[in-house]
Amino acid sequence: MSEIIAAIDEGAANDFLDTVVAGLGPQSTSGSSSLGPFAVSYSVSGTLSNGTVDLIPPGTIRIADLRLDWSASATLSLDLGDFLPEIHIPQVCIDIPCVGTVCTPRIDITWPTVSVPVSFGDFVRATVDLGLSVTLVGGVWKVEGIVQGVPSLAFGPGTAAIVAGIGLAVAAAVAWVPLIGPFLAGLAIAVTAAIGIAGLTGWLGPIITPFISGTRFPVYEQPEWFEVLPATSAIDPAVSVHIDAVGAEVQHNAPEDELVLSADISA
Amino acid sequence: MSLTDTSEVFVSVEESALNDLVTALCTARPHLLSYGSPAFVPVSDVADTQMPPILFPGTGGIQWHVRFSVPHLDLYDEDTPLPPQLSLGPGQFSVSTKVQICVDCPKDRRDPTDEPHDPHGDHGGDHPNEPNDPRWDDKPGKAQNPVCTAIELYAVGHLVGTTLDGQPALGFAVDAVELVDVMPDDLESVLECLIGQMLRAVLTTIRVPVSALRVGAFTLTPTVGPLIDTDRVLARGNL
């Protein structure tokens, strides 16, 4: 039996993880990939907020509705020719008496490739199961909750609006292109269709999933030489004890499920 | 029953761990257990606390030194046998320690030709120090002729909630004291009164922060305890 036991019930675990998750701070990543038919470079950041904690013996902390608020800034590389009809005005020749044959030039409009910056954001929810990991590394005891498996993300209701918003943003960004005016409305629709909700979530999922699956939730962290009292003067030096062992588990102690940490110490 | 019961947080500390905490405190800050006048303790330092001599006419002040060994705690129920005069009830702890009391008896007041104090010399029965016991470092300082005795001491007491630097802490209060092998009885009573007061005073300086009871796990604002359960201290409260 361990010398020291500290336990919290499920309600306290919920409050405790509120604090833990709030302390994690924002995460961010950047890179380049494809969004639908477009090449895109992006930077994405996300911040977690706690859900509802369910302690499951012998070693699982389930967090339902863990929420990730994310925002993305991306630059789409867009070849307008992929969306707009080619315009060819053929050469027209007429014979003019006393002048001869006069021809208009052949006109071919080639739509440019443009870069369009867009920004958007929303949230996702996921239910994650955390396993408990106990380590002693570099003289520091750590108990952490580590996400088991790859969580399934539930995107928020704003995802469809984001796709439409990207289409409109693209249309607005290319309004300067000569002769494009009659095609702008169609362009927005075409871009929206090309990306699609599934395309957006399929692009975002692999980017923001690590924000959740790669997070280690700190439950306990103390140096193995635990400071009982700090030094307060030359004759009152710091007082420390050695933490010899640390354990962590979820116990069912009727009627409660409890998160239990245990430790052995020596002077 | 759940550990937390109707509270959010539960903490328990076995008596072995509590003794480790007290030992760590007394080892790092031995001056908490050692008090003496300038002949024995020239200056307060990490090892000793300097106190005034005992004023008495014609003596120039009686030089003295009192040092307790690191106390050993036994939480109810009784694992460490106690003298028959003491009993350990529910909610109580017992403490066993040894107290060394020294006074300086300057020989030059009796015979100025005597040699100065030799701490390693043969002092016969006047110096029942224990030179082979590392806890009993005969530290005469400027004392000319220290005369010492060591007495085994037992006490029972109860825990008290207190604070340390504004944080909740565990304190120790003495209910009864018993000396071992002191005769006659009225001398024992006098010494028990005297040493009991010293022990009470010493134990008020030994406080263990609640944060140490949980070695930094979670947070705890106690609403129940700290109190003594069987062979352990427990507390419940909120985050």
By secondary-structure content and strand pairing, the structural class of chain B works out as alpha+beta
- Name the overall outline of chain A: elongated
Characterize the overall form of chain B.
globular
Q: Biggest sheet of chain A, open or closed, and with what strands and sense?
A: 8 strands, antiparallel
| CATH top level label of chain B | Alpha Beta
Content of β-strand of chain A = over 45%
Number of helices of chain A: 3
Query: Could you spell the SSE succession of chain A in H and E letters?
Result: EHEEEEEEEEEEEHHEEEE
Tell me the helix content of chain A: 10-25%
Could you describe the 3D structure shown?
- The complex is a heterodimer of chains A (267) and B (239).
- Chain A is an alpha+beta fold and 267 residues long.
- Chain A has one domain (4-261).
- Chain A has helices at residues 10-22, 159-173, 184-213, and strands at residues 4-9, 27-35, 38-49, 52-56, 60-79, 87-89, 93-96, 100-103, 107-109, 113-137, 140-147, 154-155, 216-223, 225-229, 239-253, 256-266.
- In chain A, the strands form 4 sheets. In chain A, strands 2, 3, 4, 5, 10, 11, 12 and 13 form an 8-stranded antiparallel β-sheet that branches.
- In chain A, strand 7 and strand 8 form a beta hairpin.
- With 239 residues, chain B is an alpha+beta fold.
- Chain B has one domain (9-238): Uncharacterised protein PF07273 family, DUF1439 (Bactericidal permeability-increasing protein, domain 1, Super Roll).
- Chain B has helices spanning 15-28, 185-205, 210-213, and strands at residues 9-14, 34-36, 49-50, 64-68, 72-75, 92-104, 146-164, 167-179, 208-209, 221-229, 232-238.
- In chain B, the strands form 2 sheets. In chain B, strands 2, 3, 4, 5, 6, 7, 8 and 9 form an 8-stranded mixed β-sheet that branches.
- Residues 110-137 of chain B have low confidence and may be disordered.
- Classes of the chains: A alpha+beta (267), B alpha+beta (239).
- Chains A and B meet through strand 1, helix 1, strand 14, strand 15 and strand 16 of A and strand 1, helix 1 and strand 9 of B.
- Strand 1 of chain A pairs antiparallel with strand 1 of chain B.
